[in-house]
Each structure stands twice: as structure tokens, then as C-alpha cells.
Amino acid sequence: MNLIICTSPLQILIAEKIIERHSNEAFFSVVIADTFNAKYLQYYERLRKVSRKALLIQDKQGVLFRLLYHCLFRAGRIDKVFLASINKQLLHRLLELIRPREIYTFDDGTANIVSTGFFNQEDAPRRLGILHKLMGLHTSDLYNTSRIKSMSLKHYTIYPGLKNIVSPTEVINLFDNASPEGLTDDTPVKVLLGQALTYDNTDLNERLAEWVIRKFGIDLYLPHPKEWYKVSGVEYIDTPLIFEDYYSRYLAHRPCTIYTFCSSAAFNILANRHKTQIIALKPWLVTNPSLLECYERFKEAGVTTIDVSEADLNTPT
What we know:
Number of strands: 13
Low-confidence stretches: none
Shape: globular
Number of helices: 10
Structural class: alpha/beta
Helix content: 25-40%
Order of helices and strands: EHEHEHEHEHHEEEHEEHEHEHE
CATH class of the largest domain: Alpha Beta
Radius of gyration: 21 Å
Strand order of the largest sheet: 3-2-1-4-5-6-7
Distance between the termini: 58 Å
Mean pLDDT: 89
Number of domains: 2
């Protein structure tokens, strides 16, 4: 039995493609969620339908023992493990206890393609726990992010042509066999992906987004899931889907321009740009090293990048 572990709806979309490529193998699919909401339940149900066994579990106290019980007594022998959240200590502990024969990894997001991301940070040292000692494990048996990267036999990526922090890689296109829904005509559409660039100045986030809407004639606005402010002058996209799924169903088959500040969602559609143009807007207030490196990755992928100065916001549009 193979074990595939997901901690986000995007990971679930990638997991579906991985399972599709291993159609002759049985999968026990586990979704670990911070909270149970409609979005997680919707994507979990999709994954459950293509899995031999499936489990949706909340990330709270006691989760390791529940996972261990299901892996050892419900799923049987785990031969291969597929995971994306390679820095998650919960998964390090699980790997130590189930001791799979093979480990495979897949993308979590843009942290996989930037050298300054959290996947390249050193893990804090750990000690053997009671379970480790009872199972006769040694310090050398402990897992960490670096060990998983080095042990991964193959990494499934949605970022073609970009260097990944794990290798060797195999490209997965999330939009293979995508079926269009809704509008399928050739009417061009411009979409802005919402993203808060400062948490200290809500007004600045609103002004920046509204300037982009006016300047570039944006038709649709997709707010970030954690966005707390409201922008005006544009039609909001109201959908229970994550962007990659919405794009696949409603945008991928028509002329479309995606405007983004530095959203990982824009990177996630790089493999399907036959009708889509991506434009990255780089405001003056972006100083985070990981975000700045993301703009470099955009350039490597051939994405048009436009600098936005503070003075631009005061220029009539």
C-alpha cells in the first residue's frame, strides 16, 4: 500500500495526478487539515474517490497516534510514501515510526523553487522519544527536511523549467484532460489575484489593488483566502474552488491575462499558458527576500514583470 499525505487543497490536486500515474497501485490518502471547512471537505471527497482508503484528520493533539494506528493497523504495510510538507515535524515522526521502503515528494508551492524559502532552513535538533526507544530506533533513524530531500527517489513538480530544491523531478500538468465549464467563447478576460503586501496598512493594499484595476482594465478579482479588506471597481469571483481549479474550469480555454503581485497561484499555472498571459506587478514595498526571489523565477519563466512605484499610485489612470 502507498501512503500519500496532503495538507492543502493544492496538494490534493497534485496527489490526484500522482495517483493517476500509479493506476496499478493502491493508495491510502491522508488529508491533514488545520480546520474542517467546506473547501477541505470538497477536495477530500475528490481524493477519496480515487483512493483505496482515505482519512481526513485535524492537526491537533493526538494526531500522530491516530495516523500511526491507521497506517499500521488499517492500511497494512506501507511501501511508498508521497508527501509535500517535508518540513512538518509531525510527518518526520510518522516516517520514523512506519519506516517506508521508498519516499517520493511533490510540490507544496513556491517554497520548492526559491533558495531562501522555509524548505532550505535548518531543522532544530531533536531527541529520541519514548516510542522511538520502544521500537529500538537510534538518533540516525530520525528524519528532518534535509534527509527527506536526499532520500526522495523522485519529485513531482508543477513548475516546468525551474530548478527545484528536490531532484530528480518529473513534471505534472494539473490541467491535463481539463474540461471547460461556463463561458468557453474567445472573449478576452483580465483577472487580478488578490494578495496583501502589507499587514500594517490596509488602506495601502486597497489603493494598490484599485490602481491596478483602473490602470489595466481588470474584469475579475479573486481575493486571497485570508484577505480581510474590500476593493472596489471590479467584479469579485465568488467560488468554493481554489484558483488552480477555477482556472482549469473557467479560464484555461479562453484568452486570459492573469495579473499578480507575487502569488504562488500564478506560478501554479505556468505549465498551461497556451492561451494565458501572466503579468507580475512588482511594487516598491516588496522587500522580503523570498518574494524578491520569486520575481526572479518569474523572469526565468518568461513572465512579464512590471515595476510599480509609490508615485504611480498618485498618477491619474
